[in-house]
Structure formats: structure tokens, C-alpha cells
Specification:
- This protein has 634 residues and is mostly helical.
- The chain has 36 helices and no strands.
- 24% of the residues are buried.
């Protein structure tokens, strides 16, 4: 009850003041600035947290200048000529202060800052400065104006973000000490070759540098500049607060570390970069999270050195493994375990992605693989470790229950022996296409036999999807394709739609009619263009992609250029790209050039992009117009 009565009395007092005084004095009293919470409770309402600031009654509005949100935005615009988005940003940054202080605080502070030469850009970059009570803000400005050897006050604006106590201490120290340049800001600028505004930017967030004695400040700056890059020192001025002996000790240790470059923040991090600490981190089996970057770098270096010792590899290889595994905490333990199981270092390097698995999971996978019947070497099936534990168990169980023609083999080794590939290569592809373990045994054996009879082994391993089709369909497709393509069969012919196969076979027939049974595109060039073999080969070397163009399209382009446009084979040899270009576009452009009276000496312009071609046409037309004018004048 006593608090409520006190609040009511204070409310009546403010109402009386508002009637007596039409204008408040320059040094205003703001709600909440007094010690205690009675004024806050007196002026708060249930809607205090809403965007529109409420008006309790006319007398309070006059006394405290409470405006709604839109009126505040209008005043922002009048003062700063800012956009709606900028006004919204200022409002949100100071919303917490508006629950305690009158909104007029923000506009008063803007007027104070602008009157003292502070740019509007500073206000938008540091909007929370407006939440400072006006009296305190004026005091900060007055204090900063007393800083010795400052040419322009507005450069010191970043210090307004610091507390009043810190600014007072800084000004007091600056007045008492004698230092080259007049103050520590200018001294750092001269020693590091950095512009004064940049020094102020970083020093304002490291203002405790002024709590260091002058001798210690100069000594630490000298030490840091002798070992570190000046620009880095400016960005990390807090390092100057440490004892000179500690800085020298850490810098000496860092010089002997494997780090390529030393930076100031490395001087002030905890010294936990010890092997025992890292061993403990790895032993926990959880991905480490370090509070500082340098510890992470040291941990990374430690892990890479262990990888090198386990595998006998180079630093580049250990870096590749580390990056590929994203620094997994299980790396060292998993490598050590695989080496103990006689896995070859080359296999670990090639399949390093399996090292990211948890130790328990990897050990379980290797144990499952060791239970495979007819296993010749663990390296043969290592790529299967990329699978989940449950997948691997199911596959191994099925392989163990399957009986092939020979009792001393399984599906992996059977495919390997039949195709001549290394078992590890087969396993790697099978792990990517796990359906190879689910295909019925009879289909697997019969399809493999058919493929080996009619296709190259590299094509078979690269395209295993064809094994999913029944042997009857495979045989029928091979027969159809063989009638047209002869020995050049591919697995995709087995699994593609009928329409695609028919189109491919039709194109093959047309190409065969042009080339003959054993003729190549080089021989076709010799015959059609009248070149010798050396000249034809040079065309292919100059533009290798010509080999991939259908011979039927090549014939149509050559016929059009030689027979209809009267170009010479030499023109085609100079610009073989024309053979890959769309015939439709070539005809369209050649007709357009003919209409404007242009016959290009080189075919290269026809192959250019649409933008380049249009530029050529425009330049040609402009040149033609200029010639006309010259002739008329003459």
C-alpha cells in the first residue's frame, strides 16, 4: 500500500509540473532515471509492450512527450531523412529503452549527435547509442572533446558506445601521460602505419588498453610488432593487456609450432595444445568443440601427424584424408584398428570415407566381413564398409547361404574372376549398387555370361543396371543390337526404352551406310574432303569433339558448305567447329549474311554465340553505311 500511495503522489507531481511549465528545461528528467522503480510502475500500462506507445492522458503526454510509433517514425524522417526500413531498424534497436524512457529521448539524442558533427551513417551503424540518457551522452561528448591531439572530434564517435566510466578513465590517463603523437591512438597509428579512424574503430572495442601502464603498453606493442603483422595487431589490441613475459613466452612457443602464420589471438588462448590433452579428447569419442581457433588448428596438426606415422604417407595425403573426413575424432583410432587388421595403407587412403564411422561400428563391420565364406583377403571387401552395419550383415548372410558353381568362391570373387578385375574394384561398384547382391543367382550368372560374350568388361562394370533385367530380355536386346552395330554393344542398350534403341540403331545404320564396315571418321574426311591422313588427323586433334558428332550430321554440313555455298575443303579444315554447329542455325545465319551482301571469308563467325554474331552483323552494316556516305561525298 505504501508503494502504491508513493506512486500516486509522484504521478500528481508530474501532472502539476506539466500544467505549470509549458517547456521543459534543457537538462530533462527521464522516467526511470531515478533510483528505484516507482516512476516506471506509475507510467506503465498493460499495453507497454505493444508497438504503439500509449497515451495515459493529456497531461502525462505533455509532460513526457509520449508519441505513437508512426509519429516517432515521422520525426526520424524529418531529422535524418531516412527510409521506412531505416526507421524500423532504429525503433527495434531501441525498443527496450522505450519501455523505460520517453520516445523523445531518441530524437533529442539525434539532435545532440548532429549538433556535434556526428554523421548520420554512424547513427544507423550504431543505433543503440540513442538509448543512452541524453545527459550521459552530452557528458561523454564533452569528455571526448578533451582528448589531447585530436584534429576532428567526430572521428571519436565509436567511443560513444563505451561506458561513461571507461571514457572518464581514458581521458584522465590521456591527459596525465606523455607519449609521441599526443595519445595512444596516434601512437598506434604511427607505429603500425594504420589510418587513425581504423585504429579508433578497433580501440573503441578494446578500450581497456587504457588501463595498461604506459611503459607496459609501449613494451608490449614493440614485442608484438617485432613478431606479428601490424594490421593483425591493430585488430587484436587486447593482447597488449597481457604481461610482457607471457607474450614473449607464447610467441617463442608459437615460432616452434607447425602453424604457418602467427596471429595475435594465438597469444591469448589457453595453452591446452598438448598431446595428452588431445589423447583425452580422442578417447572421449566425441567430436571436439574448441573455444578458440588456435586449439582447433593444433588438434588438426596433431591428428595429421598421427595419420602420417600410421600410414607412412606424405603431409599432402594426410591433409586430404583429414579434409575428406572433416576432422572426425575417430580418425586415429580407426586407422590404427585397420592397420592392425592388415589393411593396406593404399586401401585406407583410397577409401578414407569409412574412417568417419564410430569405432564400435567400424569394428563390427570388419568383424562381419571376416565372417564371409571364401574370403581371400580383408582388403578385397574393405569398400563395403561404407554400408550400414545392418545392411552389411544382411548381405554377408545372403552371400554365405548362396552356393555357386564352385564351393571356394562367392558372388564377388566369381564376378572378379570372370571379368579380370581386382576383387576390391568389384566390391567398390557392388557397394554402390547393392542390388547386385539381391539379383537371383541364375539371372546373375546367365547375364554375366551374355555380357562377357558381347561387351567390353569396362563397360559392364561401369553400368551394372543392366543386370536387373531377365536373361531373356537381355538376350533379345543383344540380338537386335548386334544385327546393326555388330561388336560395338553397350549395357545401356539392354535397359533403354524401345524407342531409344530403335532410334540409335537407325542412326547406326545410316552411319554405317556412309562409313562402311571398317571406315573411321578420319578416313571419311580423307575421302570426302580430299585430305591426306595427316591433315584429317590434325582436324581431330584441333577439335577432338568432332569424333562425337554423328557422321550423318557431318555429311549434311559438308554437303551444304561445299555444294550449296561453294566453300572449299580448306575452309572447313581451318574451322572444324562448323561441323559441330547446328545445321539449322548455320543455314539461317548464312541466308541472313547473304541478304546484307556479306560472304564471310572465315566460317568461324557462323559458330559464334548469338550476341557475338549480332555484333558482327551490326558492325558490318555500320561499315557498309560509312562506305556509302564516303562514295556520295566523292
Amino acid at each position: 500500500m505504501n508503494e502504491l500511495q508513493c506512486s500516486r503522489k509522484m504521478l500528481r507531481l508530474f501532472q502539476l509540473l506539466s500544467r505549470k511549465c509549458s517547456v521543459l528545461p534543457t537538462r530533462r528528467i527521464y522516467l526511470g532515471a531515478c533510483d528505484g522503480g516507482h516512476l516506471r510502475h506509475a507510467f506503465r500500462t498493460d499495453d507497454a509492450n505493444k508497438d504503439d506507445l500509449p497515451l495515459v492522458d493529456d497531461s502525462i503526454a505533455a509532460a513526457t512527450a509520449l508519441w505513437n510509433k508512426e509519429e516517432l517514425f515521422a520525426r526520424f524522417k524529418n531529422l535524418l531523412n531516412c527510409s521506412r526500413e531505416q526507421s524500423e531498424m532504429l525503433y527495434k534497436a531501441n525498443k527496450k529503452a522505450l519501455r523505460v524512457f520517453a520516445p523523445k529521448l531518441l530524437t533529442d539524442n539525434i539532435e545532440v549527435l548532429r549538433a556535434n558533427g556526428i554523421d548520420d551513417g554512424f547513427i544507423f551503424e550504431n543505433p543503440r547509442v540513442l538509448s543512452t540518457p541524453t545527459d550521459e551522452l552530452i557528458t561523454k561528448i564533452e569528455l571526448l572533446r578533451e582528448l589531447p591531439a585530436v584534429n576532428e572530434f567526430k572521428m571519436l564517435a565509436p567511443f560513444l558506445k563505451a561506458s561513461l566510466k571507461s571514457i572518464k578513465r581514458m581521458i584522465h590517463v590521456a591527459k596525465e601521460e606523455t607519449i609521441p603523437g599526443g595519445n595512444r591512438i596516434n601512437y598506434i597509428s604511427e607505429r603500425t602505419g594504420t589510418e587513425v579512424p581504423t585504429v579508433i574503430k578497433f580501440l573503441s572495442s578494446s578500450i581497456r588498453v587504457y588501463r595498461i601502464t604506459l611503459d607496459k603498453f609501449i613494451a608490449n606493442l614493440n614485442i608484438c610488432l617485432s613478431h606479428l603483422d601490424p594490421a593483425d595487431v591493430v585488430r587484436h589490441l587486447t593482447v597488449l593487456a597481457y604481461a610482457p613475459s607471457s607474450i614473449q613466452e607464447r610467441l617463442k612457443a608459437l615460432e616452434n609450432s607447425p602453424l604457418e602464420k602467427i596471429k595475435p589471438w594465438m597469444v591469448r588462448v589457453p595453452d591446452i595444445a598438448l598431446s595428452k590433452s588431445f589423447e583425452a579428447v580422442i578417447e572421449k569419442g566425441r567430436q571436439p568443440v574448441f573455444k578458440d581457433s588456435v586449439t582447433g588448428v593444433w588438434f588438426e596438426t596433431y591428428v595429421m601427424k598421427k595419420i602420417e606415422s600410421f600410414l607412412g604417407c606424405t603431409e599432402e595425403t594426410s591433409r586430404e584424408i583429414y579434409d575428406k573426413c572433416k576432422g572426425s575424432v575417430y580418425l586415429c583410432d580407426n586407422i590404427e584398428f585397420l592397420v592392425s587388421k592388415r589393411v593396406l595403407p593404399s586401401m585406407i587412403e583410397k577409401h578414407s570415407s569409412i574412417l568417419t564411422a564410430k569405432r564400435e561400428d567400424l569394428q563390427q563391420k570388419i568383424s562381419t566381413l571376416e565372417s564371409l565364406n571364401c574370403l581371400r583377403n580383408i582388403n578385397d571387401v574393405l569398400p563395403m564398409c561404407v554400408l550400414k552395419v545392418y545392411q552389411l550383415k544382411k548381405i554377408i548372410k545372403n552371400l554365405n547361404n548362396e552356393q555357386l558353381d564352385s564351393s571356394d568362391t562367392n558372388r564377388i570373387y566369381y564376378f572378379s574372376d570372370s571379368t579380370g578385375f581386382a576383387p576390391s574394384e568389384v566390391t567398390e561398384q557392388f557397394a554402390r549398387r547393392t542390388f547386385m547382391f539381391r539379383i537371383p543367382k541364375d539371372s546373375f550368372l546367365e547375364n554375366l555370361k551374355l555380357f562377357m560374350q558381347h561387351m567390353n568388361r569396362e563397360d559392364i562394370l561401369a553400368d551394372l543396371w543392366a543386370f536387373k533385367y531377365s536373361p531373356g530380355i537381355v538376350a533379345e536386346r543383344i540380338t537386335r543390337a548386334k544385327q546393326v552395330r555388330g561388336k560395338k554393344l553397350m549395357p545401356w542398350m539392354v535397359r533403354c526404352p524401345d524407342v531409344v534403341l530403335e532410334k540409335s540403331l537407325q542412326l547406326t545404320k545410316e552411319s554405317g551406310a556412309l562409313l562402311g564396315e571398317n571406315e573411321t571418321i578420319v578416313e571419311y574426311f580423307c575421302k570426302r574432303l580430299g585430305f591426306d591422313r595427316e591433315m584429317a588427323n590434325s582436324i581431330i586433334i584441333k577439335t577432338p569433339s568432332v569424333r562425337n558428332v554423328r557422321i550423318t550430321k557431318v555429311k549434311k554440313v559438308i554437303d551444304y558448305l561445299l555444294d550449296e555455298l561453294d566453300y572449299k575443303p580448306h575452309d572447313i579444315a581451318l574451322n572444324p567447329r562448323i561441323l559441330m554447329h547446328s545445321l539449322h542455325t548455320t543455314k539461317k545465319r548464312m541466308e541472313q549474311l547473304k541478304d546484307i551482301g556479306c560472304r564471310p571469308k572465315s566460317l568461324i563467325i557462323v559458330c559464334k554465340s548469338q550476341r557475338q554474331y549480332e555484333m558482327f552483323v551490326k558492325e558490318w552494316m555500320d561499315s557498309k553505311e560509312r562506305k556509302k556516305k564516303v562514295q556520295q561525298i566523292g
